[in-house]
Predict the structure.
Amino acid sequence: MPAIHLPAPLPDFLVTPIQAEHEIELKPSANARALVVTGGFAVQESLLNSLPNLEIISVFGVGYDGVPISLCRQRGIRVTNTPDVLTEDVADIATALVLMTSRRLGEAERHARAGSWVQGAFPLAHALRGKTAGILGLGHIGKAVAHRLLAHGMKIAYHGRRPQPVEYHYCGSLIELAETSDFLVVACPGGDETRHLINAGVLRALGAGGTLINIARGSVVDEGALIQALQTGVIRGAGLDVFENEPHIPAQLTACVNTVLLPHVGSATHETRRAMAQLVVENLSAHFAGKPLITPVC
Ligand code: NAP
């Protein structure tokens, strides 16, 4: 049975089927021919060096920004991820964050729960219809978010590295997208290329009526600049599923009433996590059977 190294805990519904066909190793060794990690796991070069016979890295997630892809290419290590199966759930969470921030639902829920309603009605919030959602990264998730927000009467604009054959308005720069948007939804990959794309200038362009939504990766947003923009009214609010230093959320963010904060739950449903686990297992089985990978990254 091929040996698989698991450097960090994974859910039972993933470990059990892996164990059925492979030997699991919790410590790195020359036996290991595969590595299975979550999307947020940083695969260090030192870990790769301790796995001299590694053939494949199977990522339990769509984002593979924690994997040094060029190094893997150099060593001929294949990489797989779990695209598509999580798209709809993540788009639901992005939509939920848009609704929660616009209608102040987190605050309203806390108001009701605290018994504050008897002291007066909850303040008015903002409607979605007629507002513009600007999507940074119109990929699988970005498109599913656009589809949902259209149903709320919103207009859609987007920015990516190139225009796409879609009916939405393409903005040639991120600043233009931010200026156009009431809600700026981050849905591009993480990694060096997108690090701190959302900076102080972009937040100024989003403006005092604007809200930032991030369901992509914490690294895309300069969190210090975001905190300052929230504290000083440069933007109206933020809905965040991901953070720069997960699972740690800065106290300044938790102190901001104009934020909705989620613990990276974009794909966290029974149905989706099981579908992701199945893809991980199918990719490993295909690799060891000498068949084409189901969802190869490289
Ligand atoms: P995808 O289909 O590959 O879409 C990514 C989009 O980002 C593409 O349309 C691409 O468009 C755009 N993009 C890439 N590089 C860019 C850049 N430098 N500047 C601007 N746009 C860029 O991926 P997906 O399945 O939608 O997933 C997107 C990301 O969501 C993942 O990488 C992952 O990090 C994150 N995610 C988060 C959760 C969660 O739980 N919160 C769950 C799943 C995924 P162009 O090529 O035209 O630029």
Remarks:
- The pocket of NAP is lined by residues 62-63, 83, 86-87, 90, 136-142, 160-162, 187-190, 193-194, 215-217, 241-242, 264, 266-267 (CB under 6 Å).
- The longest helix spans residues 270-288.
- The first strand starts at residue 3 and ends at 5.
